[in-house]
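Table S2 (text version). Query chain:
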Amino acid sequence: MRKVLALLLVFGIAASFGAGDLLAQSEATGFQVLKEKFIQGDWRFMSLVLVCLILGLAFCIERIITLNLATANTDKLMSRIEERLLEGDREGAMEVAKSTAGPAASVLYEGLRASPNGPEAVEKAISSYGSVQMGLLEKGLVWISLFIAIAPMLGFMGTVIGMIQAFDRIEAVGDLSPSVVAGGIKVALLTTVFGLLVAIILQIFYNYIVSKIDGIVNRMEDASVGLIDVLARNKSF
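Corresponding structure-token output:
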């Protein structure tokens, strides 16, 4: 039994190494094919599509990092603020909100600062500063949307120009053989594929960022409502 298990273990290790090598070879082959197809396309439009991908990914990464840093545990924050208000320490509650990172904490700080002026002032401060924080969260999304729209357009433009080149060759040669038009049509299809591929990649990141912003905004709104309730319960207006 031990010999059988040992043999199975050896075969399993060998198979895993073989699968790893095969996966690495397939990844290398896939990258080489992608590189060759990129070079075979019209470099003028391929370069522009690549620029759209690089800049779009840069904006996406910046937004994702910023939004992850802006995510805060609002329940824990509200409990700490309520503890300070129960002790009658409004300045301490403001200090807790001020020392916490994230848009929700900033909105709560503005609400606490306006609390001596009454509930209407708190609601107005929360609404006004919430709009400011919303604009900061959505910063850069316009550029990502622009690159999502431009990348396939550049691909389609390359397609049109490739087809024009193919018809120019037909006109120059006076023959409709496949070898005459294959080059132009190939360039046309490659630019379209790469343009659509870039748009798909950026669209996935864009939807993730939008969902992340929606989650932050929902937590920010819940925290704002909770702050007004806490202030009302503790008669801190």
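Notes on Table S2: Confidence is low (pLDDT under 50) at residues 1-28. The CA atoms of residues 81 and 172 lie 79 Å apart.
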